[in-house]
Design goal:
It holds the Pfam family GTP-bdg_N. The protein is an alpha/beta fold. The protein has 15 helices and 13 strands. It folds into four domains: 103 residues, Rossmann fold (3-Layer(aba) Sandwich), CATH 3.40.50; 66 residues, no CATH class; 165 residues, Rossmann fold (3-Layer(aba) Sandwich); 53 residues, Alpha-Beta Plaits (2-Layer Sandwich). It has a six-stranded mixed β-sheet, with helices on both faces. It has a four-stranded parallel β-sheet with strand order 2-1-3-4, with helices on both faces. A three-stranded antiparallel β-sheet has the order 11-13-12, sandwiched between helices. Helix 4 links the parallel strand 3 and strand 4. Helix 5 runs antiparallel to helix 6, helix 6 runs antiparallel to helix 7 and helix 14 packs antiparallel against helix 15. The termini are far apart. The site of guanosine-5'-triphosphate (GTP) has 23 residues, from helix 8.
């Protein structure tokens, strides 16, 4: 049991004991559940909660009424009284009935991991899209947890977690109102999504190579974006510093520009309602030509984090994207060969604060960009095809060979397919001389 601060800190709403239940099933992955509880402490602190102590129960299965067992509920009640706690935060998702039963037994505010994460997102949201997405996720989470028709949400009126966020005034509504609000939010989201899709299509039309920074929260994604593009994205040693995607142009050593996008971080047990609500944002990842998977290699847990990120990518349908793994924060640790074996495909060992490493990242992107392209050999009498090549993709390099023009293009698959009958015969595979390559 971890003892932490017991004196009352003014201005802090929640003084909480954090509770985790390890069932037989989860026991197989003890390392992960232990780490999950540590992460819950970090999440709670990020949300502005004073963490009093943590508590774990090992049990065959969860209790359908109170989640943890009767004896553990009594122990928790005692500790909350002793430490003057007013909140219990559970590391796993609770049902509506479990929340009500625990509230009745303990007479404190009951929060679960999902609610805590949603609360942090609510605090961070500052774009219209982000705000809509968070409210949608919060209400979708809340709806099935309300009991009976017209049950009011009095327990949410005290402020703090569960009551914060864009929808806080709206939360005093019954189910029907919540349902109406969800519909309304979905409609507003459609408008935002339409904008985003338009924007994305414009970028795609422009033929730009798109690279997404993806990874576990706090891995260093925003730092890398800032370092590479001199953007000023918020960087903080905390979970979920970034919520909205930010895109910036990045010039590669060969002079070509690509678009680099920073995205929201992942975490284990990322709430399902959140993934669903954030689909529009996460689709940035699906649009990318290349994923830079940022890993905080200074953490003991980094392999597990990598696997979690890959699992979420799979869920999003982005598993087959080309990936370069960036083992970041190398300045803090010695990375072993064994650690690198787990990376899928290519990897680089870097520190976001090392100039030479930043160059390596740019070169690695450049290499992907070039390997993604085709060469065409256009005879002098087919000059009209050159204009077409500029339309079906991004021209990377041109050269002259006798009367022929050699053109390297990163083609947009769709545009190229439509024109393949004109262009395919002019594809030039491997006949390019040295010096003509980038
Ligand atoms: N020592 C060291 N610290 C780093 C490095 N890269 C990032 N950091 C630190 O790690 C912390 C998190 O960095 P962010 O860039 O905010 O991480 P992120 O992946 O964007 O995190 P979220 O937006 O919360 O998902 C900050 O305190 C950074 O200064 C690195 O290479 N070395
Ligand atoms: Mg970030």
């Amino acid at each position: 049991m971890k003892q932490t601060t017991h004196h009352v800190i003014p201005h802090i709403l929640e003084r909480a004991i954090l509770v985790s239940l390890v069932t037989q099933k989860e026991k197989r992955n003890e390392f992960l559940t232990e780490y999950s509880l540590q992460e819950l402490v970090a999440l709670a602190e990020t949300a502005g909660v004073q963490v009093l102590e943590t508590m774990t129960q090992n049990k065959d299965a969860k209790d359908s009424k109170t989640f943890i067992g009767k004896g553990k509920v009594a122990e928790l009640k005692l500790r909350l009284e002793e430490l003057d706690g007013n909140t219990a935060i559970f590391d796993q998702e609770l049902s509506g009935a479990q929340v009500r039963n625990l509230e009745a037994a303990l007479d404190v505010k009951i929060i679960d991991r999902t609610q805590l994460i949603l609360d942090i997102f609510a605090q961070r949201a500052n774009t219209r899209e982000g705000i809509l997405q968070v409210e949608l996720a919060q209400l979708s989470y809340l709806l099935p947890r309300l009991s009976g028709q017209g049950k009011n949400l009095a327990r949410l009126n005290g402020g703090g977690i569960g009551a914060r966020g864009p929808g806080e005034t709206k939360l005093e509504m019954d189910r029907r109102h919540i349902r109406d609000r969800i519909d309304e939010l979905k409609q507003q989201m459609q408008e935002v999504v339409r904008h985003r899709v338009l924007h994305r299509e414009r970028r795609k039309k422009a033929g730009a190579f798109q690279v997404a920074l993806v990874g576990y929260t706090n891995a260093g994604k925003s730092t890398i974006l800032n370092q590479l593009t001199h953007a000023d994205v918020y960087v903080q040693n905390q979970l979920f510093a970034t919520l909205d995607p930010t895109s910036r142009n990045l010039k590669l050593p060969n002079g070509k520009e690509i678009i680099l996008t920073d995205t929201v971080g992942f975490i284990q047990n990322l709430p399902h309602d959140l993934i669903a609500s954030f689909r529009a944002t996460l689709e940035e990842v699906l649009e990318a030509d290349l994923i830079l998977h940022v890993v905080d290699s200074s953490l003991e847990m980094h392999m597990e984090q990598m696997n979690i990120v890959n699992a979420v990518l799979k869920e999003l349908g982005a598993r087959d994207k080309e990936q370069i793994t960036l083992f970041n924060k190398s300045d803090l640790c010695v990375t072993t060969e064994g650690q690198m074996d787990a990376a899928e495909g290519e990897f680089l060992r870097i520190s976001a604060f090392n100039e030479a490493d930043l160059e390596l990242i740019k070169l690695a992107i450049q290499e992907k960009l070039v390997s993604d392209s085709k060469w065409f050999r256009i005879p002098a009498n087919k000059g009209d095809l050159i204009a077409l090549l500029y339309r079906v993709g991004e021209v990377l390099e041109t050269d002259v060979d006798g009367d022929d023009m050699l053109i390297q293009v990163r083609v947009n698959a769709g545009d190229y397919a439509k024109n393949a009958y004109l262009l395919a015969t002019y594809e030039d595979n491997g006949q390019v001389e040295e010096g003509a390559t980038v």
